[in-house]
Design goal:
elongated; mainly alpha
């Protein structure tokens, strides 16, 4: 994956995750009301998306390295 694809993937992935998580968590608290839909969820999303994007850009590459390391360890131990 090239640099441009990584950025677009991070943008889209964080957008989806921030939408779902902020919507679900705040919706459960506000019972998915009209107030929730028009005021609470948009505000929660505006806060969540930049955080999700930053964490996605920083943590996902490290998680991929850890995943590769863990799967190599498991494969070596199974042989």
């Amino acid at each position: 994956m090239n640099g441009k694809e990584k950025i677009v993937s991070s943008l889209l992935g964080s957008l989806v995750m921030a939408s779902i998580m902020s919507g679900f968590i705040t919706g459960m608290k506000f019972n998915f009301s009209v107030e929730w839909l028009l005021e609470v969820w948009p505000n929660a999303f505006i806060t969540a998306w930049p955080v999700a994007l930053l964490l996605n850009l920083i943590l996902i590459p490290r998680i991929m390295v850890l995943s590769k390391w863990l799967t190599k360890r498991v494969t070596v131990n199974e042989s």
